[in-house]
Design a protein that fits this description.
Blueprint: H1 3-11, E1 16-22, H2 26-37, E2 42-46, E3 61-62, H3 66-70, H4 74-90, E4 95-104, H5 109-124, E5 133-135, H6 137-143, E6 154-163, H7 165-178, E7 182-185, E8 187-195, E9 198-206, E10 212-222, H8 228-235, E11 243-254, E12 262-266, E13 275-280, E14 283-287, E15 291-293, H9 304-315, E16 329-338, E17 353-357, E18 363-367, H10 373-388, H11 425-434, H12 450-459, H13 465-472, H14 475-478, H15 480-498, H16 502-518
Amino acid sequence: MDRNLAIQAISDRSTVWDCLVIGGGATGLGTAVEAASRGLRTLLVEKTDFAKGTSSRATKLAHGGVRYLAQGNISLVREALRERGLMLKNAPHLAHPLRFVIPAYGFWEIPYYGVGLGIYDFMSGKLSLGRSKTLSRSQTIEHLPTVEQSRLKGGILYFDGQFDDARLAATLAHTLFDLGGLAANYVEVIGLTKKNDKIAGAILRDREGGTEHEVSARVVVNATGVFVDSVRKMDEPGSAKMLAVSQGAHLVLPKEFLPGKSALMIPKTSDGRVLFGIPWHDRLILGTTDAEVPEPVEEPRIKEQEISFILSEAKQYLAKRPTESDVLSCYAGLRPLVKAGQGGSTAGLSRDHTVVISSSGLVTITGGKWTTYRKMGEDCVDRVTQISGFPSVPSRTAELPLHGSSAAAETFAPPDHLAVYGTDREKVRELAASENGLGEPFNGRLPYLQAEVVWAARQEMARTVEDVLARRTRALLLDSSAAAEAAPRVAEILAKELHRDTGWQEKQIEEFRSLAQVYQL
């Protein structure tokens, strides 16, 4: 990926883009890849970094949604299960099957959840990851060694998918370039342009250089997640809000609280949600919550009541009781939920996506979730094709391997943390061996190599210390304190790669350490 190439293309006023996508999260990247794969001249712009918002703060699950099955949303579950299978097939270096176990403390729970998960299996069809089964008490403990054993009767095992969200975003951006499209982070849309009352493009500001550019586009897609309403107001100042925004919080703990390779699923918490305990990058993620927030923000903060809720629920199911002092990192993300009438909690709103076209032709795609990003892109580009007069070209992303994918998926299995680079892994290793020190970790408590900072700058458009430590690597989520310690060395390497001075380095270190405090309890 070459940001300079994208900026040069943006500055060329003679270019008319077929599709300008605003937003570099799951939805925007999925839409841009879809458009480029159909031969459309595609540009994506993101005002901060790819997956800076919700798309790097997920529960890391590619799943159909067991709770949506309980709500009776069969169509959403069926669609998500199919998309789960496609994600695992097209990005085997980033997504893999994961065993989940529901511990049962009443004999009635085993047949009750067993029947529901049997339906879940059936709906997966040919893309099933494995059949669910009932477990004895001893088998349940074998899968969940630290599960609360008093009154434990047995359990139910089922399969779902797991992935690395921010790494998938970087991979989609790579794939967009591979397909001939372009993307640029830190490029903000500050206005939309119109011709005869129809959207004709946008005014962009490069937040690094401060320069402004007017670009022309036959179609503009608003795929800005929780911020879609603000872009819609650029088009129609009086437009009503279409989203309710919900916050989901997560705690990251040492693996010792749930050793092994199976995840814990709590099917009904005190607030009626599902809670997960998920092994991820040699850590344990506990989450999530669901609370409506009045307005979206770029850096949501976990709330005290969310921390207390997650810990109190987890303590009921884990024999080793986690406390605040055990938390390595915490994070919160915002969900864009499409409003359906008035009232009710956000927990009851659907994760379905929707495509809306304004009278001026602005296409807005929102709702949905990471698992269905590809289908969201397909549906959006189908509508784009309808309104634009582009040739009707069938979608091919269901069969499109993403950048770095390999048929030999097992060669990229954990615990090798370089697995996320897929077929680029050997290039990262070669880089690590090319210069003294690059093969060493940038912090002893984290697995990441100094070479990965160089790779992120040269190949993945990382522009800040945060880009590297939060999203190109997952250091900030795995151990926020260790990430803060690593900031000076990362800033030094980045400064060399991006030709920045010591003042830039110092500012980057200060800003990242301030951010890291948000991820600490």
